[in-house]
Task: inverse folding
């Protein structure tokens, strides 16, 4: 059975002491908390190796150019969080296609090759800068952005795709979605997820795209803290409290070994003002918890 999760990316604006829900997406398969911690460790490594100066401006320029007035309807700090989503997709796609390249499929018949050739040709023809990046993951994000400029521009898809679906399409060779991180939903499919993973992103004052640090909160499907196990619910015919405690202890050890930071939405809302938003239909913290159904007797 695939493990499905809902990801929320919050940006902490230290200048205005505000919190913005900047991006949300669904993950089908490999959505367990251990994988979420590994993904945060991956993002932290990229942030630290580039001193927090990830080229978010690539994506922000694309969104401004393609969306025009619609750009101003996006959530605050959307470009920062969406760039991290593209970086995660770059990591997923980098693991997906080497097997296809080693297969007997002719190179010209592979969809990743066709998209890569069209994008590379457009980059050369139009003088898109930069021409390449030494970091392979950032170079793949650059290709996603270039595809949005030249091969799959918004004007060709805006009548049938949302902005979130369009960003997803930029990251995959074909329109068919495979297992992995999937952007497109405006609301969590609450009856089709096992976990909610909340990522918190701090920016540095005076540098709108400079990322200072990140933290995470691992949650059950109802948004409660996975590391603070719930007591057994008398409304359910099962008691998984022992399993929940064992899982929490395992994850706490994993967090310590990876050196990632913990934070919580409750702590954020106690210290920060939530930025009003009209983009997302609902967020997990705005919805009542799911009440498990007991078996009929």
Result:
């Amino acid at each position: 059975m695939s493990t499905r999760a809902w990801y929320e990316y919050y940006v902490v604006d230290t200048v205005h002491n505000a919190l913005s829900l900047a991006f949300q997406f669904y993950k089908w398969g490999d959505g367990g908390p251990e994988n979420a911690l590994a993904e945060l460790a991956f993002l932290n490594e990229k942030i630290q190796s580039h001193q927090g100066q990830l080229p978010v401006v690539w994506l922000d320029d694309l969104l401004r150019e393609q969306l025009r007035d619609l750009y101003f309807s996006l959530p605050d700090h959307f470009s920062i969080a969406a760039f991290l989503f593209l970086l995660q997709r770059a990591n997923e796609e980098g693991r997906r296609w080497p097997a296809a390249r080693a297969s007997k499929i002719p190179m010209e018949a592979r969809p990743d090759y066709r998209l890569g050739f069209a994008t590379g040709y457009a980059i050369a023809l139009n003088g898109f800068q930069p021409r390449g990046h030494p970091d392979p993951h950032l170079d793949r994000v650059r290709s996603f952005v270039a595809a949005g400029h030249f091969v799959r521009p918004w004007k060709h898809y805006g009548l049938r795709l949302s902005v979130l679906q369009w960003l997803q399409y930029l990251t995959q060779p074909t329109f068919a979605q495979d297992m992995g991180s999937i952007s497109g939903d405006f609301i969590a499919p609450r009856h089709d997820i096992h976990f909610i993973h909340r990522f918190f992103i701090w920016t540095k004052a005076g540098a709108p795209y400079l990322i200072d640090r990140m933290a995470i909160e691992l949650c059950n499907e109802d948004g409660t803290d996975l590391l603070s196990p719930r007591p057994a619910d008398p409304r359910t015919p099962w008691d998984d409290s022992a399993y929940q405690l064992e899982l929490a202890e395992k994850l706490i050890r994993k967090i310590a070994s990876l050196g990632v930071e913990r934070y919580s939405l409750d702590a954020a809302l106690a210290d920060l003002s939530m930025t009003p938003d009209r983009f997302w239909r609902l967020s997990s913290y705005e919805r009542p918890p799911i009440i498990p159904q007991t078996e009929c007797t």
